[in-house]
Q: What sequence folds into this?
């Protein structure tokens, strides 16, 4: 998968250093993946929440953080839409960020 934009992850782990290892791990797995369907995402990340229209929420660092992405399955592109703490996540609409 092509992932846009890792800078979002880097900016986050600069503020929350304990998230760096987990985000790098997620990035490495996602980059090597070839997800064609939401079901394939669930096969890789069983605790991912599949939302509507290609949105997926991943639990990061033992569910300490949340990562929202939009996946364009036909083009194999993952767009990072949000990464944050649970408190920050509670303030956003995962379908609209």
A:
């Amino acid at each position: 998968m092509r992932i846009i934009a890792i800078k979002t992850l880097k900016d986050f782990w600069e503020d929350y250093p304990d998230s760096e290892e987990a985000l790098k791990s997620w990035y490495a797995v996602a980059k090597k993946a070839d997800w064609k369907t939401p079901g394939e995402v669930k096969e890789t990340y069983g605790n991912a929440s599949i939302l509507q229209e290609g949105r997926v929420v991943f639990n990061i660092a033992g569910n300490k953080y949340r990562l929202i992405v939009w996946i364009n399955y036909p083009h194999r592109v993952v767009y990072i839409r949000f990464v944050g703490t649970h408190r920050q996540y509670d303030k956003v609409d995962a379908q609209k960020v």
The longest strand covers residues 77-85.
